[in-house]
Amino acid sequence: MRWSNFDLSWGRPLKSILCLFDKKIIPFNFFHLTATNITYVDGPLEDKAVIIKDYSHFKKILHEKRITFDNAEREKLITKNILSFLKKNDCELEINSKLLKQVVNLVEDPIVLKGSFLKDFLKLPEELLILTMQHHQRYFPMRSINNHKLINNFIVVANKEDIKNKIIKGNERVLTARLADAKFFWEKNKSQNLVKQVSKLKGIIFYQGLGSLHDKTQRIRVLASFIADIVNCRKDDAEIAASICKADLVSDLVGEYPELQGVLGKYFAVEQGFSLEIANAISDHYLPVGPEDRVPKEKISIAVALADKIDNLVGFFGINEKPTSSKDPYALRRSALGILRILIENRISISLKELINNSKNSYLTQRVNMQNLKFTEEILSFISDRFKNLLKDHKIRPDVIESVLINSRADDYFSLFTKIKNLNKVLKTDEGENVIAVYKRCANILEQSKKDLKQELFGDPDAVLFKHNEENFLLEKINEIREHYTTPARLRTVEQTMGLLAGTKSFVDKFFDNVKVNDENEQIKKTD
């Protein structure tokens, strides 16, 4: 904020700067202010100037004025008093840490008070009550320890002692007014048919060049129906959920509480008789919102959530509105990471390229001008980069990640995740160490042999030229490995493959210990 005719912008009006070192003033200028040894404290009618001698004197003055100077001490005092109120009222002992940090920095002489509101307001959606209290008013809601539901009380942290209950009555009056407004909009919106509200989305532009929100819901509906077959849920329900998933955006209540988009849509759907699975899909298709947030678990929610996020990627990449290293205004990284987490945490094997192409067809059907002809490859590359970061968060070795991704063009990220995670796990075991040892020993000798022979080594060995049993034993083991790799990849596990490869170590060691690889006979040398 700014005040008077000063250029200084600050959270509160700055009246003075106190700066002492070893009882001496350290003078410096900050805009219109000059540092002195004077501070101001509350007086009976106006702030009173006090000359400060040193730090101990400063603390004494603050203590006399009941000002808790230390942040940690203030937080400890507020927490103690809030927990005391919660215990006395048989409420759950949980405190919103983010709200607590805000409140701690808003008061200097904290007083914790308990207020109340009409029980009738408890009929409102719980999230609506919590948002009104926490976000708008910075109150702490109270939840019963018996039924885990909100009660019609709240906790507020005031800055001064509440004489004659004026502070708490004022806060109750403000909260009542806010909740009355919320109730009015709730009663109005909950009965407005969601299906009929969908047509109003035609008047809301999703993004210039990508059509309206109505166009977007139609694209989501088509793709969600396709995904429904893969995740094995009812296509009709997936299409209904996708069609109405954005309908709550035209309601007055979401206009007043935009943070509750989807959540309020879920409550509207329940009130209007939609199944709980469809209602949950309306709220859960936005998930996950952050890296630590939960992912959708119900199949209809999964179908709609994936369709929504893929539609975002295809649309923005298609018109060349791609994120840069420093900017991601349309949260496309969040969409990509959300897709990966939904697939991995729900153990879903699916071709993302197929979903991208399906989404592209919906855009083309709506005559959207897709200027970027390479967006499919760019999206898959973009998702792969997010995939690598996700794997690193799971403590996967970078060399393991690269070894699998370089040798695989698959777009089934759950299968890739499983393979990489299992390989990373096996490499920490004795079997993993044996595989690496075998590979290194063979690779080093083969590399040297190629240099000596000055040609590539290829073809099958001629068993007629074998002189030692170790040669036959190793060839049998190699043929066993070849047979293993002829089976479809989906039937092979990393554990089986690594176990088989690790089993060659003793054969390889005996071969190199007993067989002369660099034989004078060129034919035998090539065979070995």
Spans of at least 5 consecutive residues whose pLDDT stays below 50 are: none
The third-level CATH topology of the largest domain is Hypothetical protein af1432
Q: Widest sheet: strand order?
A: 7-9-8
Number of strands: 9
CATH architecture of the largest domain: Orthogonal Bundle
Helical run tally: 22
Strand content: 5-15%
Shape: extended
What would you call the structural class?
mainly alpha
Main sheet specs: 3 strands, antiparallel
- Rounded to the nearest angstrom, the radius of gyration is 34 Å
Question: On the 0-100 scale, what is the average pLDDT?
Answer: 89
Number of domains: 4
Counting copies of identical and different chains, the oligomeric state is single chain
Question: For the record, what CATH class of the largest domain applies?
Answer: Mainly Alpha
> In which range does the helix fraction lie?
40-55%
Q: Span between N and C termini?
A: 82 Å
Give an overview in words.
The chain is mostly helical and 528 residues long. It has 4 domains: 1-65, no CATH class; 71-189, no CATH class; 195-383, Hypothetical protein af1432 (Orthogonal Bundle); 438-527, no CATH class. The protein has helices spanning 55-64, 71-88, 97-104, 126-136, 166-189, 194-197, 213-231, 235-244, 252-256, 263-271, 276-284, 299-318, 332-345, 352-365, 375-393, 398-406, 413-426, 430-453, 469-486, 494-502, 505-514, 522-527, and strands at residues 20-21, 24-25, 29-30, 33-34, 38-41, 48-51, 111-116, 140-143, 150-158. The strands form 4 sheets. A 3-stranded antiparallel β-sheet has the order 7-9-8, sandwiched between helices. It has a two-stranded antiparallel sheet with strand order 1-2. Strand 1 and strand 2 form a beta hairpin. The longest helix is centred in the middle third of the chain and has 24 residues, at 166-189. The termini are far apart. 27% of the residues are buried.
